[in-house]
Amino acid sequence: MNVLRIRREQQLSQEQLSLRTKLTRAYLSGIEAGTRNPTVDVLARLAAALDVGVEDLVKAP
Questions:
Q1: Could you report the per-residue pLDDT of 19-28, keeping only the tens digit for each?
Q2: Distance between CA atoms of 40 and 10, rounded to whole angstroms?
Q3: pTM
Q4: How far is CA 8 from CA 36, 40, in A?
Q5: How far apart are CA 7 and CA 42, in angstroms?
Q6: Structural domain spans, the chain
Q7: Cα end-to-end span (Å), the chain
Q8: What is the pLDDT of residues 29-59, one digit of tens each?
Q9: CA angle 23, 53, 58 (to 5 degrees)
Q10: How far is CA 58 from CA 45, 47, in A?
Q11: Fold for domain 3-58?
Q12: Cα–Cα distance between 9 and 40 in angstroms, integer?
C-alpha cells in the first residue's frame, strides 16, 4: 500500500485524510501499517481524497 507515502508527499495529516474520507484515524493507521485490508469502496474513497487512481495506491512502489 502506498497510502502513507502519498499522504506524506501531499503533506496531509492522518486527521485531514480521515476527515476527507470519513474513515477513523485508527482505521487509516491500520491501512498504512499493513494490519488492515481496505475494501474496494475504501480504496476508492482514499484515491478520491488523495486525487490519485486506485492503481496508484496498490501498485508496487
A1: 999 999 999 9
A2: 22
A3: 0.90
A4: 19, 22
A5: 15
A6: 3-58
A7: 8
A8: 999 999 999 999 999 999 999 999 999 999 8
A9: 75
A10: 14, 10
A11: 434 Repressor (Amino-terminal Domain) (1.10.260)
A12: 23
